[in-house]
Automatic annotation (TrEMBL), chains A, B, C, D:
One of its GO terms (biological process) is RNA metabolic process. This is Translin. Transmembrane segments: none annotated. Belongs to the translin family. SUPFAM superfamilies: Translin. It comes from Stephania japonica. Keywords: Cytoplasm, DNA-binding, Nucleus, RNA-binding.
Length: 242, 242, 242, 242
């Protein structure tokens, strides 16, 4: 070791200076993170309210009634994502540095919004539509594709329960429609070459949703409860669901 | 559910289109990640070679001899970080998206380079000097502060062993110098308001290094082996080590 | 310890020589393993494509259409197993040394190929037929019996879902046929004296497939949906299914 | 499903025939495995006896006395490995199929035999010497390199305890010798490019043995207990340990 007194004392002073700088930078990023987490907590709170609204569809409450309250939460979230975008504007190029602090909440939000959309429209809410609903702008603060896809997987997990409750309430045509949708969705995911990660695992769970819905459809069909004349059209070779 | 045949078939087609786009984007980021990981593996391999060189200081081999071989690896790493920066240039603003794929290797590299520097100069290699050695440019592809600090904690873990082996080889002044350095370093880290994370945990480990070095210094002093006249100057209130 | 300077220095040199030799041998087997894993990854990728094709039978797509695409993948796999055999030819007698690197992929491949065969022929694809389809030669690079049997267990897991979806689509004779096949298959496995291992566990799962198919057959029979005259012949004492 | 009565009955019979064949083959390999395990259990039992003998060196019993009893076990093991080789001769090319059934026991045996050799000779027992001692023939039933290396890592784990007890018993030159040996051994292992597996993990543990021995050597040196004049020669630049 070549150090002598002079070196060490020089080192000591430049060390202090450097750590003083670090202190500032770590405080800055710590504060930023605190702000982000505060907003993420509000997003989480809003998704919980929205979830409570959506649960009513399992009690066969009319969709328009359910939707009205749920949509109000989308507006709340839009405001919150606006605040997130603003906070991130302070540190350009660091979206992915703090991404972990809002991604779980966002995945849940996507699943709710996509489920509501499906209830209303019967089709998949695409990525650009979610961004629009939440006021997100891909060029600045966009919605990560994997977060969107994980959210869609979570939405799929809601469908078996929905089908069971709809059949209970006397809607015997519901399993056919859900099955058609879920079959298409599952096939679309299979296009993706998912690597071995969290998304792949979530997608693997979708097949259990599919099977459960198939089982419900089976129950309805075998008892002759399904509306007449749907069997050939439902799962025809070209996915035209009549 | 408001879906009728038209919606569903519309959805099916727009679904396919969307997932086709995702396929491309996921492939792109997957390929990028593969490239990054390949370079990170080469960095890891280079740190292992450098580690082998540095281990020789524990056998009391002369520092210049050890340094020559070790420095050659810094040049290798510089080339590799250049390639990383080039790969990341393809996707501006996504440094932190892929950060997890090179950070462990980088922390190890920092620990080696800082240990070598300390062996040669007796003081702390500061952040800007590491960037310079590795050809990193903060405005483009810089060295994350936390990675730097974690690397420094790893370097600290090497010091007790070094002191023990130096004393064994008859260098009784080494504990004093190392203790002065480690005391300053520990004090500098204490300035930082570390939150509850990986870095805090690594820093908490540094106190064991400090204690072990204190014990060795104690052993040397109590046996009258330390060079005469060093006692007051070593740990004075202003960290001036004379 | 009897070591003196001479011994130790002798040892040091013979140590180096020995480890130099090990380096070569470990590199060799490491490279071989890398080659094997690369081919195994391609086999896995091919089974995923084949799986996507086969999933269409659950949507009641005509078997010949499904089979055409799926069979193309068997040809792909045949090529890949040819490459595996060639790689293993470099190291005679070491099939089982590297077996762990392709066995999972092979078990999945077997399950697909046997399922396709069953869809086309209604009977079990025997071990020698799989070897033939994949161009394997038992005297050189054959198909491990346990891998074959585990693959068949995996195939069995597909059958309940297939039956459910066939009944939904109006094929009320399917449960009887599947039940006859699965009953025979289960009985055949019971001949084997399986020890406490992975295969035994997989086989234990087959009974759930059997029960589910029995339940579907029961549903069909109790509702008078099964074709007339099939009841006695189905599960006769000698497994003659008339 | 194209199956009709004929197919199914044909299938049933060819199924039975196939599974009858499997029964025989699985019994055969099951019996072979039982025989192997019985011998492996005897090897394990012999290593336990040998371990008991070797433990006496920690009580500073004279090495020749310890060695005599321990060597008797090597003869026992030689006989057992001869029986293993004979069993494996029944199934050429399947060494690695059953390797898992004797490898743990073999690794332990290697560690004992190499420790005894080191006690007697002060240097590393090389791979070919172990094979010779155990009557193994690489062309037929040899000693896997990784098993040898793992056994050597286990042997290294014995050394810190040995050094501590030798120093306690008054042999102050022991730490120097062990440290020289372990430093060379550690350096030799580092030549190998170990991948991320069991062996790598075991080797990573060797550094703790090394550090512990360094600490003991330090204790001896700092107290002036080490024989005079050994410091420069021990860890000189060319690993000549005088």
């Amino acid at each position: 070791m070549a150090a002598d007194a002079g070196d060490s004392s020089f080192s000591s002073s430049s060390m202090e200076k450097q750590f003083g700088g670090f202190l500032q930078q770590l405080e800055q990023s710590g504060n930023l993170r605190d702000k982000i987490r505060a907003v993420a907590a509000e997003i989480e709170s809003s998704t919980r309210v929205m979830h409570s609204c959506l649960l009513l569809v399992h009690e066969s409450r009319p969709i328009p009634e359910v939707a009205a309250k749920a949509e109000a939460q989308i507006e709340v979230m839009k405001g919150l994502y606006g605040r997130l975008a603003e906070i991130l504007r302070e540190c350009p190029g660091q979206y992915y540095r703090y991404h972990g602090d809002w991604r779980t909440e966002t995945q849940t939000a996507i699943s709710m919004i996509a489920f509501l959309h499906w209830l209303q429209m019967g089709n998949l809410l695409v990525h650009s539509e979610v961004e629009q609903k939440l006021g997100l702008d891909s060029s600045e603060f966009g919605l990560d594709i994997e977060d969107y896809l994980i959210g869609i997987c979570f939405m799929s997990n809601e469908l078996p329960r929905y089908v069971v409750n709809q059949v209970t309430a006397g809607d015997y045509d519901c399993p056919r429609k859900v099955l058609a949708f879920l079959t298409d969705l599952h096939a679309s995911f299979r296009i993706l070459n998912l690597r071995n990660d969290f998304l792949r695992k979530k997608f693997d769970g979708m097949k259990y949703d599919l099977r459960r819905v198939e089982e419900v459809y089976y129950d309805v069909k075998i008892r002759g409860l399904a509306p007449i004349g749907d069997s050939t059209a439902t799962k025809g070779p070209k996915h035209k669901h009549g």
